[in-house]
Amino acid sequence: MFFRKKSFFLSRAINAVFLCVALCFISAIFWPGISMSQNRTHTVYFEGSDHELSVFRIYGKKSGKTLMIVGGIQGDEPGGHLSADLYADFSLSKGNLIVVPRANFLSIVLKQRQINEDMNRKFAESGRANYESKIVDILKKLIAESDCFLNLHDGSGFFSEKWESPEKNPKRYGQSIIADTDVYKNKKTGQTVALGEMARSVARHINDRIENPDYHFKFNNHKTKLTSSIHKEQRKSATYYALYQCGIPAFGIETSKSLPLKLKIHHHNLAINAFMNYFGIIAETPAIKLATPELEYLVVMVNDLLPVALKNNETLHINRGDSIFISHISANYKRGLTVDILGYGARNDMRRDIQIKEPTEIVVRKDYSPCGVIYIDFANLPGQKAKGIFVLKSSDKKPLPRLDFTFKVNGKKRVLDGTKSLDVIRGDKIEIVSVTGKGVQPSSLLVNFKGFVGNKQNNTGEDRGYVIDTGKDLWKRYSKDKAGKVYLIVVTHHQHAIETVSVNIK
Question: Which residue in 315, 310, 301 sits closest to 385, CA to CA?
Fold first, then answer.
């Protein structure tokens, strides 16, 4: 299982903040009931894969109950994942949230209910081993940390206890709060969980805010464990697992697929807020954001050289056989973003080295909707004119003399005269003193230590003269090996990369 913890704190280079984030992470694992003042943590599992999973934990100023919210476990029900997404940036004064906006990201991208199997039927002990089972294993651990579990869905028609029409009857799911039983008694603890009473109370709270009585929520008791149940398939669901294995109240929140998307999101929000109120979790309601997704820019590295930023509809000119690595997407949405290099890689080519053999396009999507495109073409012959950004190998440009690098490592001078690597020990302090070459003006060079930002107010990319603490000042995700052991110093001359030095940290 691969995952990387991400913090919402901006000053990652500050040691005190790093320590605080580390303590938050440890507490979230070993002491999930402990509340940490206004902390948010973001954990990414299976990063860079088609089924990347983001988990957000929000801790209030005061301790309290923990509510878990899951959206997108089935990818063709957008009301759930778009509503859950709004709670990932919450601030709480009391209580805690665990938010998984897109449990089944791949099915959302493809706008399908499932890929290999229905993920909401994978919570029984048996089942095939696939990516869905890996995600379910993580969701089970998160459920065990929670006091209540909500699974957000968009369901067919409108639920009614009596048959009224083909679209309004006991077999429909829409506009209902589903539980697997009315009352559950935990045999181990002796505690009784009154799910029906809780759901009816929440439904009244929601319905007070819905003007149209046709859209009111009702309690939908699936009576899942009974032999007479018409919903026996729910014995493999997340709510059934949460109730009968973890002993916590668990509900499926179903808005109707017949409603407009904005109204579905609004009703999901009302339900989440009502459950937060029921458990004494205090926060403010987020606004619904349904702006048209738009790409601002894409950050791409070619052959591990200096990153370049490309705006929507721009062209990147490279050489045949060059490798590209997409490290960052900037758009008017923070989450749900993927990149697809057409004809290459997988459905999500974010943070993957891809060798380009033919001209192509990079399509950027927000969930399933394209929101931008970057064109990739090969460099034109000399004398031809073309628009876009050019990133060419050093052999394609006028050769420059060999560069010599002078460093200070822990205050002691070290010169690289021809070698292309600098070996240090983690915690060593490095300063790039100078880069010189015969016939080259130092002022015409830009010397950039990838993974370090010297001037955070005005980041020009020039890193000569800064003392870099290799123990706390470097950003791991920008290291060459993505493990924080190898970093690159890239020298550019008139916007062309001409020299690279590898910094190896032991």
Answer: 315
Cβ–Cβ under 8 Å, residues 404 and 437: yes
Average pLDDT for 264-292: 90
Give 445: exposed, middle or buried? Use CB within 10 Å, 0-12, 13-18, 19+.
Answer: buried
Instruction: Write out pLDDT tens, residues 315-352.
Output: 998 988 889 999 899 999 989 999 999 998 778 999 88
For 277-286, write each residue's pLDDT tens digit: 999 999 866 7
Nearest CA-CA partner of 454 in 466, 469, 471, 470: 466
| 3-283 CATH, one of 3.40.190.10, 3.40.630.10, 3.40.50.720, 3.30.70.1530 | 3.40.630.10
Pairing of strands 184-185, 192-193: antiparallel
Which secondary structure element, helix H or strand E, spans residue 54, and what is its range?
Answer: strand 53-59
CB atoms within 10 A of CB 244: 16
> Cα(116)–Cα(256) distance, rounded to whole angstroms?
25
DSSP assignment of 217-269: -EEEE--TTSTT-S-GGGGGSHHHHHHHTT---EEEEEEETTS-HHHHHHHHH
DSSP 402: P
Per-residue model confidence as pLDDT tens digits over 464-496: 999 999 999 998 888 888 889 999 998 887 667
**Whether the Cβ atoms of residue 357 and residue 320 lie closer than 8 Å to each other:** yes
Q: Answer whether 0.70 is exceeded by the pTM.
A: no
> Do residues 71 and 62 lie in contact, with contact meaning Cβ atoms separated by under 8 Å?
no
| Nearest CA-CA partner of 460 in 444, 473, 474, 447 | 447
What distance in Å separates the CA atoms of residue 145 and residue 68, rounded to the nearest whole number? 9
What tokens appear for 45 in the block? 């599992």
Distances (CA, A) of 249 to 98, 139, 191, 198, 246: 15, 16, 12, 9, 9
Going by their DSSP bridges, the two strands 53-59 and 3-7 should be labelled as unpaired
Mapped to the 3 state alphabet, what secondary structure does 453-482 carry?
CCCCCCCCCCCCCCEEECCCCCCHHHCCCC
List phi, psi (to 5°) of 262.
Answer: -60, -35
Measured in residues, the chain has a length of 506
CB atoms within 10 A of CB 162: 7
